[in-house]
């Protein structure tokens, strides 16, 4: 992960009046360097050694700040836990129905679908999401061994 992206995120937060604390910086850095889609608990567990006084509530509060600043997305599908994604570019997700692993994939944007939906229904379309479900390679291989 480039420091450029982290520096841009820090500047974006500062420009909205958000004060950068060491915990806030560490959470943001973790999210931007994470290839997965961590839960708040996973973020907390990965940082608790560096910040023994930090609580899970601190992580949740900072995730809310980042979400409001449009630096991250909250993913509320897959298992019951919200997961957080720092990739704000248009992309889609494939989710393992067994282990809930979420993987990004690129696909041409479905903006045409939004326009078609708006025309056919009269709705003002704000956004969309597409999710594909299946078994990840590891879970599929494990099932084959049973």
UniProtKB/TrEMBL annotation:
Its cofactor is Mn(2+); Fe(2+); Zn(2+). Keywords: Cytoplasm, DNA-binding, Iron, Manganese, Metal-binding, Repressor, Transcription, Transcription regulation, Zinc. GO terms for cellular component: cytoplasm. The keyword Repressor applies. GO terms for molecular function: DNA-binding transcription factor activity; transcription cis-regulatory region binding; zinc ion binding. It is found in: Cytoplasm. This is Fur family transcriptional regulator, peroxide stress response regulator. It comes from Marininema mesophilum.
């Amino acid at each position: 992960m480039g420091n450029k992206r982290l520096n841009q995120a820090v500047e974006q937060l500062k420009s909205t009046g958000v004060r950068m604390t060491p915990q806030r910086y560490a959470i943001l850095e973790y999210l931007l360097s994470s290839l997965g889609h961590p839960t708040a608990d996973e973020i907390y567990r990965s940082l608790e050694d560096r910040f023994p006084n930090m609580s899970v509530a601190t992580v949740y509060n900072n995730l809310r700040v980042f979400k409001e600043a449009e630096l991250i997305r909250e993913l509320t599908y897959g298992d019951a836990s919200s997961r957080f994604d720092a990739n704000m570019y248009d992309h889609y997700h494939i989710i393992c129905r067994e282990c809930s692993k979420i993987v990004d994939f690129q696909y041409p944007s479905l903006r045409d679908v939004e326009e078609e939906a708006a025309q056919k229904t009269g709705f003002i379309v704000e956004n969309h999401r597409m999710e594909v479900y299946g078994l990840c390679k590891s879970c599929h291989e494990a099932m084959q061994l049973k």
